Amino acid sequence: MGNSASSICFIVFLSLLLCICFAFSFSPLEEQERDRIIELPGQPKDVGFAQYSGYVTVNQQAGRALFYWLIESPLSRVPASRPLVLWLNGGPGCSSVAYGAAEEIGPFRIRPDGKSLYSNPYAWNKLVNLLFLESPAGVGFSYTNTSSDLYTFGDRRTAEDSYVFLVNWFERFPQYKHRDFYIAGESYAGHYVPQLSQIVYERNKGIENPIINFKGFLVGNAVTDDYHDFIGTFEYWWTHGLISDSTYRNLRLACDFGSSQHPSLECTNALRAAELEQGNIDPYSIFTPPCNDTASLRHNLRGHYPWMSRAYDPCTERYSNVYFNLPEVQKAFHANVTGISYPWKACSDIVGDYWADSPLSMLPIYRELIAAGIRIWVFSGDTDAVVPVTATRYSIDALNLPTITNWYPWYDNGKVGGWSQVYKGLTFVSVTGAGHEVPLHRPRQAFILFRSFLENKPMPK
Asked: Based on the domain organization, do 175 and 285 belong to the same domain?
């Protein structure tokens, strides 16, 4: 009798346990619905597309969770058949929500009041479903429960966490499995994008119908190869009249980043001289005036890339800092659910200052993925003095790729929109008059470029 009673108690206990587990587990559809954005404060009426945002855990033990924002293509364009594009911003330590989504390729721009939004007529979600990721943890709304993580992030862990994010995200959004998938980004995402692309490609090997149906990547004004990036950057400063002949000579002699990531004292002094000679310009867009009172936001001599302290700021970053800190905005985004102890910022100083690992070159990854037949496009705004067009061209030249179509001007409504060259395995496109963030300065031309990339067609002649 006692054994029977014990058995019954055990069965009841097991049933209760299963009920509790069931109650706290969600199906993918329930998880999606939980992440659905009903409406963002200040957004235009009748937007005609669905939005989702929330967290995906990438490391249970450390408590690392990455924040995403999915913006689907309008219903009139059948989002179910459109590709998925992951967009990453760089820094390192800068937010894809602040830059890519809010001032470049997303459907909304933030007004100067920091409270209301207006439509971007050249939003890329008119062509694809857009997925923005704040990465690594510590950037934007993404967080870690292990504070030491913030001081030890680098390229390798960022790529691994981003891959885990994708794997887990596709489980939450199974309708995107097997869909054509691309990765895009700019600036220091010139490291993130190829590294994540390499991981996806290599882990897809041997799988006949991979869940992550990776087709190609697109990078703009991208940090690619230290040696060639530095040579091209110093040359750009000199040829655009930003520095003196003597400082240019000193930079060329003193700064050798082909073998070391740490500038010598002579190189640091030459970089300081270059900064003084350039004066109060916006290095991310040399022909447009800087935002008033941007002294604290200008480039300085810190970090792995001495001139790269901030993403581009023609005041738009300020609007983001207001908007994304509004409690009603965070609630609509299902963000800051753990009560992060610091305000949301467009760029994390800690993550950027303590970046742990950064390979000297991405060119070996380019060679591997070009050989694999992955679609690769590289674009460059030609008024950027941070990762300028000359730096990108030197890096591409180092690949020694055969030319398919020689350098030619491409056109938009009869006007030159830039220039392009098609290599075997890679297409290069410049965008005239655009700074570091091409879609911010030349949104229409960037839209044309992106459409050509998706269609895998040369830029319009």
From this structure: no
Phi/psi for 445 (5° steps) reads: -65, -35
Q: What percent of the chain has pLDDT over 90?
A: 76
- The domain boundary, picked from 254, 281, 316, lies at 316
Verify whether residue 384 is a known catalytic residue. yes
What's the CA gap between 86 and 214, in Å, rounded? 11
Average pLDDT score over the chain: 88
* 191, 299, 436, 441: the active-site residue: 436
187 counts as catalytic: yes
What is the spatial distance between Cα 156 and Cα 191, in angstroms, rounded to a whole number?
Answer: 10
Catalytic-residue membership of 436: yes
Domain holding 290, by residue range, is 227-316
Q: Which of 149, 384, 420, 430 is catalytic?
A: 384
| Nearest in space to 124 (alpha carbons), one of 458, 438, 387 | 438
> What Å distances lie between residue 290 and 111, 221, 279, 440, CA to CA?
18, 19, 11, 15
pLDDT digits (tens, 9 = 90+) for 211-230: 999 999 999 999 999 999 99
SS3 39: coil
**Per-residue pLDDT tens over the stretch 43-58:** 999 889 999 999 999 9
Annotated catalytic residue, options 135, 142, 162, 187: 187
- The tokens describing 207, both together, are 């799988």
Q: What mean pLDDT do residues 266-270 have?
A: 92
Residue type at 290 in one-letter notation: P
The predicted-structure confidence for 356-400, as pLDDT tens digits, reads as follows: 899 999 999 999 999 999 999 999 999 999 999 999 999 999 999
Give the pLDDT mean for 83-106. 96
When pLDDT is averaged across residues 73-78 and rounded to a whole number, the result is 73
Count up the domains in the chain and report the number. 2
Task: Count CB neighbours of 94 within 10 A.
Answer: 29
- Are residues 391 and 447 located together in one domain of the fold? yes
CA distance 446 to 429: 10
Beta-sheet pairing, 375-381 with 213-220: parallel
Which two tokens mark 152?
């030890």
Asked whether residue 460 is domain-assigned, the answer is: no
Q: Does residue 236 sit in the same domain as residue 210?
A: no
Question: Is the domain of 236 the same as that of 219?
Answer: no
- Which bin fits 424, alpha (ψ -120 to 50), beta or left (φ > 0)? beta
Look at residue 4 and tell me whether its pLDDT is greater than 80: no
